[in-house]
Each structure stands twice: as structure tokens, then as C-alpha cells.
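Model it.
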Amino acid sequence: MNACKNILPDLDTSEQQDYELYLMNSFKAEQDADTKIILSGLAYDKFLENSAEMPQELAEALRENLIPNDEKVQKLIHNHYESICQAWTPERSSYIRLGQMYHQHEHFKKFFDKFEPDLAIFIAEAMHVYAENKL
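Modeled.
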């Protein structure tokens, strides 16, 4: 899977392989024969575009002192969810776990927190609110 290199460009080959294994194992139970984590073509381009914009927009929301359940924040999280659905449709519990991974996995935390301190936990909390209310 080369998607991880584009989303987390600071990963070396070994770290990328470790992350991909972690990701696949973390969400394996929710996958069926028709779902894949790997993206291709236009769906992958849309996913990367959203991946680049989402942390910047949510960092701005955090700087504005918005809270995770704010309507503006939840619209941004909805866009993230739709982007994720290009590859796989997470259930409530798996979307919450994905948010937790953003906060707990050192590479994701470093990636998000470079936009704004504590952004990773903010995203995780916003994803949890979204999952509880929409999934």
C-alpha cells in the first residue's frame, strides 16, 4: 500500500510497513470481500485532497476555540467521513477507533499536532461526537 507514504510523508519504508500492518489489523474485522483500505484513481485523489485540507481547517476551528460538537467542526468531520468512505465504510465503533488512532499513533499525532497543538485529540473527540450522532 503506497497510500500511507502520501498521507504521512515522513515515514521511512519500515515505518510505513509497520503502520500499514497496524492499520490493516486494527480494522480487519470490519472489512468484507467488497471493501478495501487501498484507494485508486479519482477516489484516491479526492482522499488525498481532503487529507491535506482537513487538518488545516480543523486547526483553524481549534484556534477559534470551537468545540468538537460545534456545527462547523461536525461539517468538517462529515467531509472526512465521506472521504474515508471512498475506501471503506466504517461503523460507529471503527470510526471512533480511527479517531483514537489519530491521537494515539505517534506518526498521526505528530502529523496533526504540527498544524496546531492538541489537534489530534480535538479530531478524535470530534470524530467520536460524529460517530455517536450520525453512525
